């Protein structure tokens, strides 16, 4: 790197490192989604509809995730109810 | 045993066809009977890059439909012995390629060739899926740029879960990273992801780095695979990649900024 580059880079952050950070986050997220079974989105949808019969919630208020631990799988449900 | 090699990427315009032509030609030059198959139905281009566009009579879909025999459709390269091309169809029918049809043709190709190089279309839809489905090895072509890296990772996900090897529970498809259109100068300025950055994110073995090079356009203008331009940086980088693919241990080149010599500096060194 020349002296000129040094001064130029001092003011601006290197955009490549921004790109790398963003990629690491999105790729990790998408890999996590990939290992989930195909039925999860439908299951989430069904759960939202059942709960909506009783409480007004948003699509995103129900989160489902499947975690594998050895020979058993744990279905994790996270339902956020509106403020009382 | 014949090997099926897919050249894939997810994203379009990253250098899959350039790479298929170069790697296929390189394998044939090293004595392997090689065929390069264009899977880009509707957007045939491999024939132009290989310089045999005027010799296409029958294509991949004709063979699937039984309108021509495989040997009628195979185009023998005029420069390199052992090298043939199977052109894509220009049809607009997206369903022209079927899984059974592709399998039948690949099985027939296996009997004649050592390497079957499949030039994948862009995307993750049917064409790209069929190109990668039967693969033994995959060359994932990636540019040092966010959307290309992300799409490559998606393609790796597909290879790991939806390929024939994955479905049959066989040994997984061997994955190779080929980083193309690399610009060491921009990397050194922090404007472009570096080889190490991309390797770290995708976490697959690095097959090679092909520099951004004027030789690629020059070669495609003339219908000559760039690997035949053996004094060009891109040609040499592809040649190294072929050697690595065949198991040779070759040091990576063209990763650093090339210092311009005094002559080049005086005369504005373009070439
Ligand atoms: N290493 C390289 N240096 C410069 N240009 C390149 C390089 N690799 C590919 N290109 C150019 O990029 C464009 C897309 O390449 P192509 O091989 O057709 O990509 P794809 O098959 O992935 O769509 C072409 O114009 C090609 O000449
Ligand atoms: Mg192409």
TrEMBL record, chain A:
One of its GO terms (biological process) is cell division. The gene is minE. InterPro entries: MinE, MinE_sf. Prevents the cell division inhibition by proteins MinC and MinD at internal division sites while permitting inhibition at polar sites. This ensures cell division at the proper site by restricting the formation of a division septum at the midpoint of the long axis of the cell. Belongs to the MinE family. Keywords: Cell cycle, Cell division. Pfam families: MinE. NCBIfam families: minE, PRK00296.1, PRK13989.1. This is Cell division topological specificity factor. One of its GO terms (molecular function) is identical protein binding.
UniProtKB/TrEMBL annotation, chain B:
ATP binds at residues 11-18. ATPase required for the correct placement of the division site. Cell division inhibitors MinC and MinD act in concert to form an inhibitor capable of blocking formation of the polar Z ring septums. Rapidly oscillates between the poles of the cell to destabilize FtsZ filaments that have formed before they mature into polar Z rings. One of its GO terms (cellular component) is cytoplasmic side of plasma membrane. NCBIfam families: minD_bact. InterPro entries: AAA_dom, MinD, MinD_FleN, P-loop_NTPase, ParA/MinD_ATPase. Coiled coil: none annotated. Signal peptide: none annotated. One of its GO terms (biological process) is negative regulation of cell division. Keywords: ATP-binding, Cell cycle, Cell division, Nucleotide-binding, Septation. GO terms for molecular function: ATP binding; ATP hydrolysis activity. Interacts with MinC and FtsZ. CDD domains: MinD. Belongs to the ParA family. MinD subfamily. The keyword ATP-binding applies. Residues 3-150 form the AAA domain. This is Septum site-determining protein MinD. It holds the Pfam family AAA_31. The keyword Membrane does not apply. It comes from the Bacteria.
